[in-house]
Model the fold of this input.
Amino acid sequence: MTINGAQKKPLPKGAMQRRLAASNIGEPAPIVPAGTVTGRALITVIAIMTFLAAITAASITLVQDATTHWRSDLAREITIQIRAREGANVAAETAKVAVVANNFPGLADVRILSAQETGRMLEPWLGRGLELDTLPVPGIIVARIRDDVEPDLDSLRVALKKEVPNASLDDHRGWSARLSAMSDGVLFGGALVLLLVLASTALSVIFATRSAVSGNRAIVEVLHFVGARDSFIATVFQKHFLIASLKGALAGGIAAAALFAIAAITPDFLSKVPGTGNTAALIGQLMLQPAGYMGIAVVVLMVVIIATVAARVTVFRTIRSID
Amino acid sequence: MLETIPRAIIPTDNGGSSSILALIRHLNFAIRPRSGARLARSIRPGGRLIRFENVGLRYGTGPEVLRDVSFAIEKGSFQFLTGPSGAGKSSLLRLLFLSQRPTRGLITLFGHDVSGLKPDTVADVRRQIGIVFQDFRLLDHMTTYDNVALPLRILGRDERTYRPEVIELLQWVGLGERMHALPPVLSGGEKQRVAIARALIRRPELLLADEPTGNVDPPLAKRLLHLFTELHKSGTAVMIATHDLSLMEQFDARRLVLNEGRLYDD
Done:
């Protein structure tokens, strides 16, 4: 007889085992239903945040790459300017200085810029079609710094002054310093934006977690009463947030990576974006290096970790307040 | 805290009380505290499971709902907790399953002073207590089977290891054919039996039942009481909170009577 009074025939020996083995129980139901914890809205928020953070991280690497490239070029090149002066032949003085530079250790590819090249450099200031012969245009010499021998630029300055007093050497340190300052500024600003986006993601998850735990208060209470530890309950909720943050972060990260991939294969992508003409001139083509894509992957990972940890900590706090 | 040892699955349909005793014996052997378990060691055979000394409880700045409550629950004992509505029965039960802490006095549960319990120890203590709520507190999105299996699932046990125990218990409470049903489609009596099965599945040291017969008809109420008395015979301490006089008249047991926040041992 069972508790409700029903009479049943005794089962033969072994029948119960066979019946139990054949019972089709299936997968246990989730302790907390997924739909009550995370919704599409949270996944979308995480995806947008990840997209913004990934774009920021990738842009930082782009600017860094560009400034490193510029600085490298500037650092490996010097310019000697021979200013015109009364009663002096600029072309002769320029040739004299070129000989000094050519014989100076550590310099290579010494080249005097032609009148046409100098004219092109002046075009932005003076416009086209000018008669340069009527102007006191300085002579310009460019030289490459050799990789194997570091030239003593101070000695070169002294030697140039001795030979041609109005010759001046520019090793581009001023430009390099300004580029460093700009690069550092962009890096700092980018890092700040990245932090703010990640903090916003964490806050979104915290609010969603609080809401989820409060909404499932009855389940939390039952779990407590049957002896579940806080860590077990936290893990139950955390799993949902891990899955939601993975979905959102992957979607945002893939979208950001796809955007840069499209930019890389589309000529003049940046110049087609309104208001970015100068940026295009500075950065060139948006060709994200592997480190940039790695940065996007790191952002995705960080979003997942931050969301999951924020959810776990919040669940612990909320369930302790319930208890 | 608990471990399962190999055992033969017993038939459940060999009739009447022997069936109940067989099931209880089965549960006794199927799940037992590990020899080194902290809580199990703290309970001496025949000793006190629970001790209240001058316990008082008030909510916020309101009046005391429980005043100078002192009593003990011995291992393997049986008692009714009764009293008029609003006398404090639910508050006392909340103190017993650690849902509430006293505002004064001393409560010792399974050898632990509740005032200094850490969250993990609270969970360990609760694992020694089976609770049957008046409103059942079943999880509506889980099947009958999953609800009953929940206390074993939270221990991290693999589903295959507890499946026979859960099915056997469900068959015994007459819900073998309803194990895939969700609580919203169960009747009040069926829900009550699911709640009882969930409280029993881990073979608790103490069973607390809040108005367990409040939602069932008299014949089923009688059978439920029979179940509780048989559990008591097997060594489980039982406390039933009820104001059903006819239920108490069916079994001669200690009666703890709450009136205006004070407890009287009748």
In short: The first helix of chain B runs from residue 16 to 30.
